[in-house]
Input
Amino acid sequence: MKKTGLLLYLCLAAGAFAQQANQAVAGPDGTLVTTVGFPTERVQTPTAADLYCAGFVSEKRLPNANYVAGGLQTPNTTQFVNSDMVFLTGGGYQVGQQYTVVRELRDINRYELFKGQFRLIKSMGQPYAELARLRIVDTRSKSAIGQIEFSCDGVGPGDFVIPFAEKPAITFHEPIHFDRFLPASAKTSGRIVMAKDFDSQLGTGAKVYVNLGANQGVKVGDYFRAVRSYDADLHDSVDSLSFKAPAAEDTQRKPPSIEQKFLTKTGGPVIHVRDLPRRAVGEIVIIGTTPTTATGMIVFALEDVHLGDYVELDQ
Output
């Protein structure tokens, strides 16, 4: 009898605890804090590799007089990594100096992932990949000799070298409730125009380039939320297909219609896609800036982040 009573007590206590855990609490005006609308955000901390291998977009072309001419096993070896010796063309080298190896990029696919992408990239400037850090160890020959101390990717002949600069540390916030349906505000906003390696479907850890920079007050350590409206889905060649599929139940007397270019009238309510709330899909921390652009890292994602998604300065 005692065992039965104890078991019943434990069951009731567990049920009460579960009910309390699942109970929504009051949030900002007009909201209840739930795990769906306000998931707990736990950010991924960028590593040294994240900071120094992220790449960037520069409004001005970098000087290209100093570049990699080859290495110890040239021409049999064309890719150089950690600890390899490389030969450098150009001038101004001094023993002990550190340089960053960068590559001027071009997108060989030439496929526009959202309308106006090429125009925005052109207005932002030239994309560069950050490949490695090296130190000058010998300047006695016409070609200086450098040793790669840290590599992100293979260094090849023709890649440029620019003076190395330390990157500022990032300050991270504690886990918070991420407001998934926060309405638009008048804060600084821009767009994800490109991503590292020309990726298009992005998740936590991915590096992105936005058309905002120091001229707009953006600084390293700022947080931006990536947001997407259902209008964007409607104009996407793939995502829009779902809008064209039947969404009604067979038992509905007057099924609804989704507003699109060619509206099929059913006599039921018309769903206006532009009136649906925009949704936040992830959070980005800024890890580098130029006057007109910024490099960010996705530190929290609820779903795929896309090129063309808008970004807005977060608190």
In short: The first strand starts at residue 25 and ends at 26.
